[in-house]
Amino acid sequence: MGKRIRELVDSDPQEHTITAEGWVRTKRDSKHFCFFEINDGSSLKSLQVIIDKTTDEIKHTVQQITTGSSVICTGMLAESPGKNQRVELKADSVELIGPAPADTYPLQKKRHSFEFLREIAHLRPRTNTISAVARVRSTMSMAVHRFFHERGFCYIHTPIITTSDCEGAGEMFRVTTLPMDKIPMQDGSPDYSRDFFGKTAGLTVSGQLEAETYALALKNVYTFGPTFRAENSNTSRHLAEFWMIEPEMAFCTLEGNMAAAEEFLKYVFAAVLEECAEDMELFNRWIQPGIIESLQGVVGSSFTHMPYTDAVQELERSGASFEYPVSWGMDLQSEHEKYLTEEICRGPVIVTDYPREIKAFYMKLNDDERTVRAMDVLVPRLGEIIGGSEREDRHDLLVKRIRESGLDPQDYWWYLDLRRYGSVPHSGFGLGFERAIQYVTGMQNIRDVIPFPRTVGSAEF
Ligand code: 4AD
Ligand code: MG
């Protein structure tokens, strides 16, 4: 592997010949020289290359170099007289590897809208913003694993195909091999006993239930994988395929869960600030002014805690006008979540103890029997980025809640077994990875923080 551009642009002038490879960002010709910048995605910086058009061969090659073409250049890394860069490559040879015809290459040197870039998702990582998002995403993934690894959590791979609907919301994509044009029927419905798995199966909406089984054996575990939701939400915060990080901790109540979520988020944010400083400057300048300072503020302060009932009261008292008026018992809408964090708490807030009717069956019932030990972490600009809870660890109550939710306890026999054999208080949460990246980068649309977004009506690439 040759040196990456990032190392070259930051190094001192060198005495020996070096090779640089990448894609051309810009090119400028003068009578005797050709100047072009090459980038290889290792950083936002490009390397300036200058070549003296001494021979006909060089003249011919540089003539064909256009924005987007790939090149390998060899020469001396010398001090640059320009003020934009420390060094530049004085090339004595340049090899055009793959041309990019200027009349059809869609990425010309101008600012393209993110909407347009989504249509060329296979080329958009060659832009500054999308490559910065990719680097931040990678850094955040590593920070997630590091956080849990350093604390002794075991990384569990939960299944992608499942026969239980964790959230009980019926938003699963079905997985079947039944012939669509000739579905075997029985009593008027498809006969899934003849399907691949012998019963209905789908893509997982969450690895939580399976993670719980491992937590009740290994104490602290986490999952980090893709999850799928067939919800018809065409918003800037919803994907049909997104990644989720789900820690699950045995012998842990809601209080421990809240503390873990806060520590975890701060750790990941701090890692990005430290390891992606250059990319964060870009987001700070072009995407969300002030984002660096605001993230530093979040890392250095404490999250507000607020029970749902208080949150509803605060929202009612605020006198703000909402599209959906607030009242106790309703699920908080994105407008309420944003108002709560941006105007009332002015920072991240953990809302707890939601009404049982609006939360999943597995959340532990409070003594008031009206609310459950749920917790949502809400942040400015986005609203919910984490959803979690203490789990119902009492067998009979859990059976009741499963029935109440219109589900069949028999489908959850193994999950119920965990409450029959060595049950303990346990808790966990799920961080929507793309929402976290949106929060950190300030990117408006969730479709721009995942390489190939899957949303309602869209699965190109
Ligand atoms: O609140 P949710 O539905 O919680 C769960 O799935 C639990 N099983 C987690 C747990 O306790 N282990 O989803 C968790 C998070 C949300 O807070 C949100 O950030 C993200 O997942 N999320 C989505 N992100 C992108 N697109 C969607 N359609 C999402 N739905 C949820
Ligand atoms: Mg939720």
Q: How much beta, percentage-wise?
A: 15-25%
Strand order of the largest sheet: 6-12-13-18-17-16-15-14
Helix count, DSSP H or I runs of 4 or more residues: 13
Helicity, in percent?
25-40%
Distance between the termini: 29 Å
Q: Structural class, from secondary structure content?
A: alpha+beta
Shape: elongated
Average of per-residue pLDDT values: 96
Bound molecules: 4-amino-1,4-dioxobutan-2-aminium adenosine-5'-monophosphate, magnesium ion
Chain oligomer state: single chain
Gyration radius from CA atoms, angstroms: 27 Å
Tally of extended strands? 18
**Uncertain spans, ≥5 residues at pLDDT below 50?**
none
Q: Summarize the main sheet.
A: 8 strands, mixed
Task: Please give a structural write-up.
- This protein has 461 residues and is an alpha+beta fold.
- 31% of the residues lie in helices and 25% in strands.
- It contains 13 helices and 18 strands.
- It has helices spanning 5-9, 56-64, 114-119, 128-150, 208-218, 254-275, 277-287, 291-299, 308-317, 334-345, 395-404, 413-420, 433-441; strands at residues 17-29, 33-39, 47-52, 70-79, 87-98, 154-155, 161-162, 174-175, 185-186, 189-190, 201-203, 220-228, 241-250, 304-307, 349-355, 371-379, 383-390, 426-432.
- Strands 6-12-13-18-17-16-15-14 form an 8-stranded mixed sheet, with helices on both faces.
- Strand 4 (70-79) and strand 5 form a beta hairpin.
- It is elongated, with a radius of gyration of 27 Å.
- It starts with a helix and ends in a 20-residue tail after the last helix.
- The mean pLDDT is 96.
- Residues 376, 384, 387 line the site of magnesium ion.
